What does this fold into?
Amino acid sequence: MKKLAIITSHPIQYYAPWFRHLAENKDLHIKVFYLWNFGVSQQLDTDFKQVIQWDIPLLDGYDYEFVTNTSYDAGTHHFWGLQNPSLIRQVSSYNPDAVLLMIYNYASIYRFLLEWDSRKAPLIFRGDSHRLLTSTGAKAFICRLFIKHIYHRFAACLYVGKANYEYFRYHGVKDESLFFSPHAVDNERFFAQAEVAHQQAAVWKQELGIPQNHGVILFAGKFEVKKRPLDLLQAFLQANLVDVSLLFVGAGHLEEELKSQAAGNRNIYFAPFQNQSFMPRTYAAADLVVLPSYSSSETWGLVINEAMCLRRPIITSTHVGCTQDLVRAGENGVIFPAGNVLALKSCLEESFSNKQRLQQWGENSHRIVSEYNYTQATAGLIQALDYVVKRE
It folds into this structure.
């Protein structure tokens, strides 16, 4: 049985079910080291601008421990937000065969990379960055050299999708040390709740005041610049759509501006932040889910995985990390050039021009996302473990 230490920032609703899945593997023993306790206690989310505590179990079913964080401003919103002086000692006490890092760009992790003896236990990295929005110039060149140097510390890397694979290759990671471990959500939870979620969604739409005969376009997430909810709003206002409503679900810095620009349009609705247990209902309320992000920091977009579990057709921009993997134009949705409001308008009109096709796109989404699951993610991790342990 291989012992794997996993280092990550804090309990995350997408990763906890995967860790439980890993813990069920007979050939593997894992222990997760958390550097911050966000998600399991009530704390302010600076992007949502409200106190958050996830309402699904994040610490059940696997071995873990918290590493004391001494940062004066704990969090993942800045480099010094994770400072954990006892991290190396605690991981060493576990005596792992290998260490999987899910993050690296924080003070604690740089210290760990500098001081950890990889001859004792090789390092594996799982990232999701991409270069869909490229940068040039001296700063970009220096950044590339620095990242290549960081990646040399890892004996293997796990890539979550096509754009992430190209990112690793661009930064000098050899193909032989790259293993596919796709981004996934708890598919089974969403599949199991689908029927109830549709019943709940019908009631919720009535409570929100959305007409029963209207199709619904959904944006779910943080109202922030990089996700471009204002682009979707403008595209909707310009589009020639009949009996279609737009629903924004979430919170964030752009909320007031969104509501101001939407004022006077009776077919635009807002709902507050929905915790995890309500997300199946949220997607079930939609006929189409849109993620129009314009940013290199939209590394994947797991909201798309979740929506596809509920058989939702998808529109994404070219900057969303999962687009090349999950969104197949004309099969389960449409893709538009990031930042192009006119193109997004056309995508909305195309999607609702054939409601039967739109429904078929949703069925295709379910089939596609079924292949992006924790079993596949685990298979890539096991391959990487075998590779680094044999190499050592």
Observations:
- The CA atoms of residues 67 and 87 lie 6 Å apart.
